[in-house]
Amino acid sequence: MRQYGRVDELLFRTGRADDADVLLRFWSIAAENSGRPTDTREAVERLLDRDAEALIVAERDGRVVGTVIAGFDGWRYHLYRLAVDPGERRRGIGRALLERAEKRLVRWGATRLDAMVLADNSLGQAIWATSGFSPQPEWRRWVKPL
Ligand SMILES: CC(C)(COP(=O)(O)OP(=O)(O)OC[C@H]1O[C@@H](n2cnc3c(N)ncnc32)[C@H](O)[C@@H]1OP(=O)(O)O)[C@@H](O)C(=O)NCCC(=O)NCCS
User: Fold this and answer.
1) Is residue 136 part of a domain?
2) pLDDT digits (tens, 9 = 90+) for 12-61
3) Domain annotation covers residue 142
4) Ligand 1: residues within 6 Å at CB?
């Protein structure tokens, strides 16, 4: 059995109104940034204003080392911005974030979670696969830029 002792030293918390700048810096180095528009301060502030609890942050000594957004729009349950500091990977932080995200969404009635994963993101696919997610090849995302 794998020990996740170091995860116990982390603080897991939800989002705070003043998180935007630190998150933008963190995601610029830790998140999967291909294939999507650049994050903006306004967009992050909108999330924190609308549902700060959707953001789950892992911190070590006040430093952000991981994030996930567990969003509920009233109908479906989506996970976004699963990211772990490159120097802190493979220590169970991603798994611990997903466990907390799942608990939050189950409290809102979730019976199914989803995440968008780039087809060539093997790191991402590894953690989703081991966490019980599987791809739905029969679906494609359709988008309309505004
Ligand atoms: C994907 C990511 C969040 C994983 O975070 P992490 O803290 O390293 O993951 P964990 O240590 O909790 O790993 C959980 C499991 O995922 C799988 N996994 C994670 N990293 C892996 C790797 N490099 N190779 C193979 N499997 C891996 C393993 O099954 C692992 O369990 P194990 O260590 O007991 O074998 C991290 O690599 C990351 O931030 N990647 C860049 C951003 C990204 O791609 N996010 C996903 C967007 S869809």
Assistant:
1) no
2) 999 999 999 999 999 999 999 998 888 999 999 999 999 999 999 999 99
3) no
4) 2, 30-32, 82-84, 89-95, 115, 117, 121, 123-124, 126-127, 130
